Amino acid sequence: MAQQQRKPFRPVRQEEPYRINDRIRVPQVRLVGENIAPGIYDIQQALRMAEEQNLDLVEISPNAVPPVCKVIDYSKFKYEQKKKQKEIKANAQKVVIKEIRFSPTTDDHDYEFKLKHALNFLKEGAKVKAYVQFSGREIVFKEQGYKLLERFAKGLDEVGKIELEPKLEGKRMSIILTPKALKK
């Protein structure tokens, strides 16, 4: 039996998001940076200026005419960019959806209890997905489930608004409510 020839292992090279130094392939660049007079320079002259300061020439805006390059320490620049991305990600709001389950025969006390919880969820800024779960032959009470969800939405009218009208999916009828903008 002949052995199969294996390909040599090659680590995957990650493509750099910015072109630096010799990878910049344009005749002229607009140069910015510390200790440099901003202006349009020949690429060789710009590379020489960056080398004299022991820094890198980084293409910041490749679509500009001529492309904008900055004389900076590239590893420090990459670190700053990662830090900015993390900060943006941390400040992004995460949407929380809380679910509340009913049956078509939910008692008034249970309904009030769940309504109070939904009110708190909306005040905290979470979305609320309320659904009526039909089991067995309860599906014949679709109208009762619809009325229950409508009553639920009206009960939360002050703090929430309907994002998705009540709709039936299989044996589950659901509605989604979002918090109204808080008045300051």
Description of the molecule:
The protein has 184 residues and is an alpha/beta fold. The chain has four helices and eight strands, in the order E-E-H-E-E-H-E-H-E-H-E-E. The strands form two sheets. Strands 2-1-4-3 form a four-stranded mixed sheet. A hairpin with a 6-residue loop joins strand 3 and strand 4. The longest helix has 18 residues. It starts with 27 loop residues before the first strand and ends in a 5-residue tail after the last strand.
Counting helices, strands and paired strands, the structural category is alpha/beta
Report how far apart the termini are.
Answer: 79 Å
Strand content: 25-35%
What is the alpha-carbon Rg in Å? Answer: 31 Å
Q: Secondary-structure element order, as H and E?
A: EEHEEHEHEHEE
Mean pLDDT: 84
Instruction: Please summarize the sheet with the most strands.
Output: 4 strands, mixed
Q: Unreliable stretches, pLDDT < 50, 5 or more residues?
A: none
Number of helices: 4
- Helical content stands at 25-40%
- Count of strand segments: 8
Strand line-up across the major sheet: 2-1-4-3
Tertiary shape:
elongated
Characteristic terms for this protein:
single chain; 184 residues; alpha/beta; four-stranded mixed beta sheet; 4 helices; 8 strands
